Amino acid sequence: MKKPKVAFVCVHNSCRSQIAEALGKHFSSNIFESYSAGTETKPQINQDAVRLMKEMYQIDMEKAQYSKLLSEIPQVDIVITMGCNVNCPTIPCKYREDWGLNDPTGKNDDEFLKVIEEIHFKILELTKRVENGLII
């Protein structure tokens, strides 16, 4: 069976969606393909997120990821929005949900760690639902 493609989306594609893409690839690449994108880009991925992901998971997000626009990723099956304080970007998909995560940008490491742990939990939960055919 073809693996579904999942897009993790937030406005700037520089923090939460990048973390979700990295953890999706790390934990769930056998179940779904992970992408991230936004309606705007930043010159680099959030450096606090990069540092903490290296410390926690030994994942160097800057090695294979960069901030990209929605138009730069393939057609996806599942869209996960991170929690937008403004209008959430929309792209066609078979299934969509919002994770309602606060943006930790500019906050302390504890706030980042809470968001990273929540994304980790949600990735594992999403993986089980896709694996068990509960979504799409």
What can you see in these coordinates?
Keywords: Arsenical resistance. It comes from Blautia parvula. This is Arsenate reductase ArsC. By secondary structure, the protein is of the alpha/beta class. It has one domain (about 5-130): Response regulator (Rossmann fold, 3-Layer(aba) Sandwich). It has four helices and four strands; from the N terminus they run E-H-E-H-H-E-E-H. The chain has a four-stranded parallel beta sheet, covered by helices on one side. It is globular, with a radius of gyration of 14 Å. The two termini are about 15 Å apart.
What is the count of structural domains?
1
Give me the CATH fold name.
Rossmann fold
DSSP, total strands: 4
Return the string of H and E elements. Answer: EHEHHEEH
Beta-strand portion reads 5-15%
Task: Supply the CATH superfamily name.
Answer: Response regulator
Second-tier CATH architecture: 3-Layer(aba) Sandwich
Question: What Rg do the Cα atoms give?
Answer: 14 Å
Quick structural summary:
By secondary structure, this protein is of the alpha/beta class. It is built from four helices and four strands; from the N terminus they run E-H-E-H-H-E-E-H.
How does the SSE layout of this entry go?
Layout: E1 5-9, H1 16-28, E2 33-37, H2 47-57, H3 61-64, E3 78-81, E4 95-98, H4 109-131
Parallel strand pairs: 1-2, 1-3, 3-4
Helix pairs in contact: 1-4, 2-4
Domain Phosphotyrosine protein phosphatase I: 4-129
Protein name: Arsenate reductase ArsC
InterPro entries: Ptyr_pPase, Ptyr_pPase_sf
